Amino acid sequence: MTPIFQNYVRCFRQYFQIRGRASVGEFWSFALVTLSIFLVFVLIETLTKNEFYLALGGLQIMLSFFPLLTVSIRRLHDSNRSGWWFLIKLIPFLGGLYFLYLMVKSGDDEANRFGEVP
């Protein structure tokens, strides 16, 4: 299995786990695979005009909500920030951009209050 799918599976195994840290690769692997699967369902729905596939895509997004939330919190922990920083996204536009910056920037190079380097 490729590292991207290993990270995807790891996020589902840690469904409600907010303790610890997540690497940049773990977060982006999960986010991009989730988005890719949804887009495949949307493409199939568009080509076949069968709304069942769109419903499957919606179900997949709902099942991925908590793992995406928890991996985002663990990603914030990697840069020694509290999970409450997730709420910065509530600030229109600038909050989302800053959150994106936090998800892209590298984490601490050594252990911090949230755990060892992932």
Helix content: 55-70%
Question: Major sheet: size, sense and barrel closure?
Answer: none
The total strand number stands at: 0
Name the helix and strand elements from N-terminus to C-terminus, one letter apiece.
Answer: HHHH
- The figure for the number of domains is 1
Helical element count?
Answer: 4
- Kindly name the structural category: mainly alpha
Q: What is the average of the pLDDT values? A: 92
The rounded distance between the terminal residues' Cα atoms is 19 Å
Radius of gyration, rounded?
Answer: 16 Å
Strand content: under 5%
**Mass-distribution shape:** globular
Low-confidence stretches: none
Q: Notable features of this structure?
A:
118 residues, 4 helices, 0% strand
Describe the structure concisely for a colleague.
The chain has 118 residues and is mainly α. Helix content is 64%, strand content 0%.
